[in-house]
């Protein structure tokens, strides 16, 4: 059975979040860099994703923050949504001001933010090169 997932931000909310992030990152945010924010809600958790990418997608970094919505967590959807956005703002800001180092970790790790458990994972990669490598590998599969 597939878990139902729904978007948690209206388009105008996404624009406001993106504007806040761009303003907060200042000079560390490159002029040709895109920023995308999205968020989903399922029965058990909320996840918010931030992606930074240059125009050629040679440098792509994404961060995903999540919170469990179990009754014992005592966190409402509204509170979890706000906390994950604030947490990601802090994480991405540190990443940019530290010269984009260290890169985001692939595995989920638990952090405490404002007294609540928040999970984080992400990735930094060259999307264009990965697509080229996939194409080359795909061509090689047909040869024997």
**Which term fits the overall shape?**
globular
State the strand order across the main sheet. Answer: 1-2-3-4-6-5
Proportion of β residues? 25-35%
| SSE pattern | EHEEEHEEH
* Category from helices, strands and their pairing: alpha+beta
Largest sheet: 6 strands, antiparallel
Span of the ends, CA to CA:
39 Å
Integer average pLDDT = 90
Helix content: 25-40%
Tally of individual helices: 3
How does this model look, in words?
With 144 residues, the chain is of the alpha+beta class. Helices cover 35% and strands 30% of the residues. The chain contains 3 helices and 6 strands; from the N terminus they run E-H-E-E-E-H-E-E-H. A 6-stranded antiparallel beta sheet has the order 1-2-3-4-6-5, with helices on one face. Strand 5 (109-113) and strand 6 (116-125) form a beta hairpin. Helix 1 packs parallel to helix 2 (77-97). The radius of gyration is 17 Å and the shape is globular. The N and C termini lie far apart (39 Å).
